[in-house]
Amino acid sequence: MNRDNLIEKLKMISVKDKSLKDLYEEISMCCMDEIKSQWNKKSGRNAYYLSVEFLMGRMFFNNLLELGVLSEAKKIFAEKGFDLNRFEEIEDAALGNGGLGRLAACFLDSAAGLGYPLYGYGIRYRYGLFRQSFENGSQREEADDWLKWGDPWSVRKDAEKRIVHFADMDVAAIPYDMPILGKRINTLRLFQAEGSKEAEKISEYLYPADDTEEGKLLRIRQEYFFSAAAVGELIDRFVKFNGTNFEKFPEENVLQLNDTHAVFSVAEFLRILTGKYKLSFGKAVEIARETFNYTNHTILPEALECWDAELVAKILPDIAVILKRLQVFACREWQGRGCSKEERIAMSVLKDGRFAMANVAVFIAKRINGVAEIHSKIIKERLFSVAYKYYRNKFMNVTNGVTQRRWLMLCNEELSALYDRNLGKGWREDMEMITRLCFNHAGNIAEFIGVKKAKKAQLAEYIAKREKIQLLPNAIYIAQVKRLHEYKRQLMTAFAILRIYYQLKEGKHPEFTPMVFIFGAKAASGYRRAKAIIKYINEIAKLVNSDQDVKNKLQVVFVQNYDVSYAEKIVSGSDVSLQVSTAGFEASGTGNMKLMMNGAVTVGTMDGANIEIAERAGLQNNYIFGATVEQLAKLENNYVPLEYIRDYPEMKKVTDTLIDGTFSDDGTGEFNELHTALFQGASWHAPDHYFVLYDLESFVQALFAVNKDYCDAESFAHKQLVNALNSVFFSSDRAIISYAKNVWKIDK
Ligand SMILES: *Cc1c(COP(=O)(O)O)cnc(C)c1O
Questions:
Q1: Active site residue 488
Q2: Rounded distance, CA 583 to CA 605, Å?
Q3: How far is the CA of 102 from the centre of ligand 1 (A)?
Q4: CA of 36: how far to CAs of 43, 181, 343, 390, 739, in Å?
Q5: In 10 A of CB 642, how many CB atoms?
Q6: Residue 650, by phi and psi: left (phi above 0), alpha (psi -120 to 50) or beta?
Q7: Residue tagged active-site, from 271, 297, 394, 485
Q8: Of 326, 300, 292, which is closest to residue 312 (Cα–Cα)?
Q9: Average pLDDT, rounded, for the chain
Q10: Are the beta carbons of 192 and 164 closer than 8 angstroms?
Q11: How far apart are CA 184 and CA 623, in angstroms?
Q12: Nearest ligand 1 atom to alpha carbon 94
């Protein structure tokens, strides 16, 4: 990359009389010209990451950082009288729901950063995840019209369009290539559906939830659309250069299925090999088994995709036939290996008239991984226990990670500068170096306290601008930012806040250090309880923030439209990270890692990657509470919330606020429904099935422990810095190296 050249070109750009959008496009295009001359062409063995979501966030600042011109560009434009940070108004392309999509983005970033050939395939949604605002405390949704800012970081490739066939229509898949910058320039290829009004619908909207089934037919079309386009392209390319000796296909191509959303690619692969190229079914399966790998992201039963076989047959008859043949083929293999009938049913591809996509993935994948130690263990022991018995060697673990380029260097220049000063710049290439920082040195702690203070002030300023609320300046900033879900237990945090609130009103804690609770979360459009929880927290915020008795002591803010760019501000400006999911439910979490990397301590349960975080940064430097997976398993039928809270009258007072008129749900009855779910349950679940009340008391105690420890500013900052320094393991560079060596077998 010719950096000097680029800087000269940037200097030539005039800012006069240009709209924000025009200037944004001009600067971006100028960078793209430089990038295009260096863009790596595919060759040799490559890995492909198939994901229905890529939550990239804003590309502008990240790309300028990667090009090595970010600080220079800020200076150049400041001299012209233009503040480059104004591009923060450019909205994110939110082509993902949450953790799963963001992981895909982090992986692409790390692979490019390290120099591994990893290419992404996905869908170019016209509208991403909805934009959220609050109206009277309730969620409002608006289409995410991200293209109104243009799309200067992508290149449309009409010449490489593909046709995807459905029984009722042909759809053109037009590739848009986005460069992923680093040591190599890799590509994220997103397909846009074109051809007719019906066709366009396929890439119109991001599927609005990653954990429920909705709009089934359209969803099947979406999944097949990008899977087929990707696989078709890879096979054509292989044939062009290698002919039809498909045994060699896995030597050049390895595909990673990011959850089950891309599993149709397996069926498409078998269809093409057995159809067009006349391979035997057995041979095609054998090759597929050398080609595909599968990452499981959740054990929530509602998220394990099962598609009605007749529905699939209606629009994809050949694919339905292939999957049925696969079932027959698999059964023969299982019989040969002496599986019992129950075992065969458990592993079946076709079950009760439905295709179990996870079972397809498990049968075909060479490697199957969970995303944190505990999650991979649960997969083996519970979710896929039968498959584990017969295909032990397939199963492994790759704990998730986050890219330190976006989640440290970009969002926390101040902490990065601290590392630069004390270690030189080498850590930016080799993050391991930061563990060498002699953090017992009082100077480092003082410096770190300064950094944290500055980041908190920046966060407060940002929130003041966006939400029109002034955060308390000398408070502990406590963040719970993640999608809204019952298992993530934002409701438990709401109850904990009320517990603290009532105690403060009674004058119980004269030494209390002020606490600010910061929430950020979108609730899936159809998820009523999640929306009720947002409303409830906003009602609590209204009560607490306006009560003179707790003024300057307690504050609650729920920010609107939490997205990657908002996350960058919050993870770097918080003291405490709330990761309080019911043990066994959060596969890994990555928000926990971002906050850790920026020096927040974790208040969390023994769940997902929290366990590994506490292991690495030390239990004494984090606040682990609540029931473990084993404890909850023992509890099963002996947990009766109504009886349980009899021992905790304070808890009753808090849960009563859902039904005693303390708060208004605008007559919707949704608060009452939350109360019912806790104490009576529902047709599909036991009372309080996420053990909110069971863990509440120990959660509140953990928060008070934080409050007490925070009084000793130095020792608390020490805990925080130990967390930041031990976050190296949670860099997605480590995860990518593990995939490259153990799964993909690709070289830099
Ligand atoms: C990292 C991230 C997530 C995932 O957060 P978890 O706490 O791991 O669920 C979700 N949304 C956004 C915008 C993120 O940046």
A1: yes
A2: 6
A3: 7
A4: 17, 11, 53, 48, 28
A5: 13
A6: alpha
A7: 297
A8: 326
A9: 96
A10: no
A11: 40
A12: 13
pLDDT tens track for 129-163:
999 999 999 999 999 999 999 999 999 999 999 99
The DSSP string of 468-489 is S----TTSEEEEEES---GGGT
Cα–Cα distance list, 735 to 104, 371, 401, 548, 740 (Å): 12, 10, 6, 49, 9
- The single-letter DSSP state of residue 712 is S
User: Which of 92, 107, 481, 598 has most ligand 1 atoms within 8 Å of CB, for mutation?
Assistant: 481
Is 297 among the catalytic positions? yes
- Is the pLDDT at 38 greater than 90? The verdict is no
Tokens linked to 101? 């999509």
Instruction: Say how many Å lie between the CA of residue 231 and the centre of ligand 1.
Output: 29
Examine the pLDDT at 213 and tell me if it is beyond 60: no
Between CA 652 and CA 655 the distance in angstroms is: 5
Residue of 58, 261, 482, 485 with catalytic role: 482
Q: Which of 590, 602, 605, 655 is catalytic?
A: 590
Beta bridge partners of residue 554, listed in sequence order: 515
For residue 481, the CA-to-ligand 1 centroid distance in Å is 7
The interaxial angle of helices 357-364 and 317-336, nearest 10 deg, is 60
Which of 221, 405, 406, 483 is an active site residue? Answer: 483
Residue of 298, 400, 483 to mutate, ligand 1, most atoms within 8 A of C-beta = 483
Phi/psi at 683 (5° precision): -55, -30
Measuring from atom 8 of ligand 1, which residue has the nearest CA?
589
Q: Which of 368, 152, 395, 423 is nearest to 257 (CA)?
A: 368
Closest Cα to atom 11 of ligand 1: 98
Q: Which two tokens stand for residue 647?
A: 């021992």
Ligand 1, atom 1: closest residue by C-alpha: 591
Q: Is 482 a catalytic residue?
A: yes
- CB under 6 Å to ligand 1: residues? 98-99, 102, 482-483, 562-564, 567, 589-591, 594
CA of 568 to the centre of ligand 1 (A): 11
Nearest to 176 by CA among 134, 118, 124, 114: 124
Catalytic residue among 452, 535, 594, 616: 594
Spatial separation of the C-alpha atoms in residues 152 and 149, rounded to whole Å: 9
Instruction: Tell me, rounded to whole angstroms, the distance of Cα 724 from its chain centroid.
Output: 20
- Element at 369 (helix H, strand E): strand 368-370
Q: How far apart are CA 587 and CA 377, in angstroms?
A: 11
CA–CA distance from 422 to each of 294, 416, 417, 729 (Å)? 41, 10, 9, 20
Q: Specify the amino acid at residue 398.
A: V
Q: Give CA–CA dist 51/721, Å, rounded.
A: 34
Neighbours of 503 (CB within 10 A): 16
**pLDDT at residue 68 above 90?**
yes
- 460 CA distance to ligand 1 centroid (A)? 20
Ligand 1 atom closest to the Cα of residue 608 is 8
- The string of DSSP letters for 247-261 reads GGHHHHEEEEEESGG
Q: Please tell me the residue having the least CA distance from ligand 1 atom 6.
A: 591
Ligand 1, closest atom to CA 481? Answer: 7
Which residue minimizes the CA distance to atom 7 of ligand 1? 591
For residue range 622-670, list pLDDT tens digits in order.
999 999 999 999 997 899 999 999 999 999 999 999 999 999 999 999 9
Element (H, E) at 63: helix 60-66
Angle at alpha carbon of residue 335, lines to 332 and 339, rounded to 5°: 135
Cα(72)–Cα(77) distance, integer angstroms: 9
Cα atoms found within 13 Å of the Cα of residue 188, Cβ hemisphere only? 27
- In a 13 Å sphere around the CA of 401, the CA atoms on its Cβ side amount to 25
The confidence band for 41, taking pLDDT boundaries of 50, 70 and 90, is: confident
> According to the model, what pLDDT value does residue 216 have?
86
